[in-house]
Amino acid sequence: MIVTVHPIISEHRDATAHGKRLHLLALRKPAAPVAPPGSVDSSARLQNRLLSLYCTIMAGTSLHRSTDPIPCTNGEHNGHEHALPSSPSDTGTCGGDDGIPVVDFDVLVNGAADQRAQAIQDLGRACEDWGFFMVINHGVTEKLKEAIMETCKELFSLPEEEKAEYLEAGPMDPIRIGTGFFSVVDGIRYCRDYLKMFAHPELHCPAKPAKLRDVAAEYSAKTRDLLLQLAKAISESLGLDGGRISVAMGLDSCFQILVANHYPPPYTGGPDSVGMGLPAHSDHGFLTLLFQNGVDGLQVEHDGRWHLAKPLPGAFFVITGDQLEIVSNGKYKGVLHRAVVGGERARMSMVSMISPCLDAVVEPVPELVAPDGQGLEFRGVRYRDYMEHQQSNKLNGKAALDIARVQRDTTGPAEK
Ligand SMILES: O=C(O)CCC(=O)C(=O)O
Ligand SMILES: [Fe+2]
């Protein structure tokens, strides 16, 4: 058989030294040219091309499984920094490379009709099976990601008095900082510093570090665009018009939060001081975008097991939230996830979450419910109330969703 070797292969060989992929590559058509929607610097462009090739090699579609991640080329996202402490008091086990779906954003937005249709279908499967996926070729530059991460890191190391005014803030206050935060849940100590800022419709931002406002403005705008495009594609994957979910939840005036999490080492001490990051929970919003500082620790629940999420270089993780579960009448679930930390290095994660407009009453779209109302899973709840409820209580799996769940009478008629 004669195979044509695409010129980009040598680039791929140089960067990855993975001969076996070269062989596979020769048997499949090269990936469509990658032109991310936003501007990208040249190293990001090379990375995007490699990732796109990788997609082509692994599955020949826009979605593939991350069972064989590309080794780190930039030293940042090496994903091998992980030493799991003992699990919390559940029965979950931790997997390694467990086939987390990967979505090529460029195909979703710019692909030819047939590629797009396939990508939408694959996206739907990722939402339904996992509620969690990675997105590549997303157009948000590494430079911007580094800038927001570094600036938040600076904030965490400011003296306490610089942050004092935000330390006592309540769940609906637009800027909240929790620092040196240690809570004990079921005998496990969870430690995390966090910064939470409302980013849209209006950006609220601590005065220091001085550059935070500009960086956060740019980062929130870029990631909001990305998440809103994903919302459109998710709407289509549910068999709805692209704008349907957006209309149902008022995403035109969506609410957005940026969260920086910092999990400081070392995690030492007695049995009650096993360092954990964040207890299992689902997110109260609609869709969450997350990247980390090269230190693993995010785990997602899938098929009754905890799976360690190892990112492809440059990829974002996407986490489906409770509002997607409600609006889709439970077809797509808000995925349970947690952060487990235990290595020598501090872990940081950066979250950008979009949610319905605060005053939107979110309920299942009628198209996804039988006309007689049979199978209706959720009642309408104002998002502001939902968020306040979830944020005011201890993080406890998916318990918050119960306030929206339709309670069925399972007792049957009383005996006479
Ligand atoms: O740090 C992580 O990886 C998880 C963070 C998270 O789940 C959250 O902030 O809601
Ligand atoms: Fe979360």
TrEMBL record:
The ranges of region (Disordered) come to 73-92
Q: Which UniProt keywords apply?
A: Iron, Metal-binding, Oxidoreductase
* Molecular function GO terms recorded: metal ion binding; oxidoreductase activity
Q: Which domain of life is it from?
A: Eukaryota
Q: Which residues form the Fe2OG dioxygenase domain?
A: 250-356
| Pfam families assigned to the protein according to its UniProt record, in alphabetical order | 2OG-FeII_Oxy, DIOX_N
Q: Which residues form a coiled coil?
A: none
InterPro entries referenced in this protein's UniProt entry, alphabetically: DIOX_N (IPR026992), IPNS-like_FE2OG_OXY (IPR044861), IPNS-like_sf (IPR027443), Oxoglu/Fe-dep_dioxygenase_dom (IPR005123), Plant_2OG-oxidoreductases (IPR050295)
Keyword Metal-binding, does the record have it?
yes
**Family, as annotated:** Belongs to the iron/ascorbate-dependent oxidoreductase family.
This protein is called: Fe2OG dioxygenase domain-containing protein
> Organism source for this protein?
Urochloa decumbens
